[in-house]
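Q: Is it fine to ask for two folds in a single conversation?
A: Yes, each is treated on its own. Send the first.
Q: Here.
A: Result:
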Amino acid sequence: MEKRQVAHRQHQISTPDATQARRVSSRLPGSLLASVASGLLLGACSWIPGVHFVGISETTAPAGGSIGTVVADEPQAALVGHDVLARGGNAADAATATALALGVTLPSRASFGGGGACLVSRPGEVAQSITFQTRAGTSKGADRPAATPASFRGLYLMQLHYGTVDFNDLIAPALNLASTGITVSRTLAADLAAVRPALLADDGARAIFGRGDASTLVAGDSLAQPRLAGFLERIRVAGVGDLYNGALADVYVTAAQKAGGGLNDDDMRQTLPLQTEALTTRQGGVDASFLAPPADGGLGAAVRYTTGASAQGTVAAWRASGNTSLAAAQAALNSGRSGGGSLPPLPASTSFVVTDHAGMAVACVLSDNNLFGTGRIAGSTGVVLGASPARTPQPLLSAAVLRDQRNLRAVIAASGQNEAADAVGDAARAAAHETPIPHEGAGRINAILCHGNDSCRGSTDPRAAGLAAGTTNDNRN
């Protein structure tokens, strides 16, 4: 059975591979299971061209009702999430698929070597905050310290508790994108241009993101990542736990060490997601939920929403206080305490939001702790190594969900480094008062705004290159 540690309504999942292993073993012949146990199946040879995995059942949304909406910074990932909704998956399924697709389409900010946080809200229930933070490698002598990969365990935990389809089926779209290739988006191209000299200095990164000369890929170029496809196929077959406790963990650690990352097996095992109740507040008949610490951008956004005070100042004071508990954060929110400090330059991130026809909402923020993490690749896995959290400040992960009684009002998440939490707080205030969401400063908002659960529209920052994908089953947008 899967092991869980439960204390004061907080949940950490330590081995998210048990259920996965049962699901996989029920479908695979013994000979294939034996080959998985004896071989690493990494690299291009592990992907069979032409195979298309489709496991999500074709179902129909309620007559005249909305299938749901996905809004993300990268269009191809948004379309993957929306396709999951169209096939009958719920918001947690679609959010998981979107995040996994972003690992392929936007590895500059959402590689599988990083982490993040998601806020999950269902009608009539207390919203939950799921944080999957990376850990710093503890091996000495690393010249480019890396973070442990936290995203897979966090996404697995969310989908295990709230999803409706097999986790493997949600890996398949990302696997297909890595194998057959993506079109480089404007978002990824801009990130590549920003770090071109440093990225091309690494042979592994240059082989993936270079153009064969002294330049990086540009918008419209094709990008296939067969080694990353092999990595995803390995997880699809052997389970998420293999990356943290199995042979794939050994492969990843060895590759990270060769890349100067300083990871070891214990670092991988100790990378655990945390689930708690969200921070909550009620004003004017609107219930607002925010990501909870350790995703402390949620506290900053909540104080900005309730008082108008600086979110960045609130988080600076929170981090200086040494407090870490949910109770302390909720008390700070209830008191309206803020702060006048500031934060150092924070790492880049990306955000997305999802709703479904049943009123579930998910808002997520992902980060590599630096643009393109360490700028190096974890060997044959094709994964961009996240940067060590011991060397970079914690990213400001911020998201919110607003409900009016039991009807969904808004789902909001943001990137924008130091200004992300302020942007979420301002957007939440605008949504509560039904005024236009401001798009000012460095904060970049992705939002879904609703008038009743069946009347929602996506909104992405007009200054960026994201996509709001929303469809109803009678073809109205």
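Q: Second one now.
A: Result:
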Amino acid sequence: MQSLFLGAASHPVEAVLDALPYTIFLFFVPMHFQTELALLSLNGIWTFHSHGCLETKMWPNLTADYHAMHHIMHRYNYGNYTFLMDWLFGTLRHPNSIVEEAKSE
């Protein structure tokens, strides 16, 4: 079952590795501390949104119902914010497709 807190439930090493790109990015694109804080806050809000069981229709944004497929199947819907890369590389799956795939196996 999905929970709002699944996004924060990770191993400490994984959490550091997740934050590393944001830190490295600052060396190439310097920005004000408050801007960085705002971006990290928005990312946290998005993490809660994508794990919160909210079935919102925000196409092309990746929503909780699609992200749940990622946690169930572990081979689809890798995108963090949008469907674009999953669509381009063939890893996009609709939430209802899990039932159809189970019937065909």
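Q: Anything structural to flag on that second result?
A: Two points. The chain has five helices and no strands. The chain has two domains: 1-52, 54-105.
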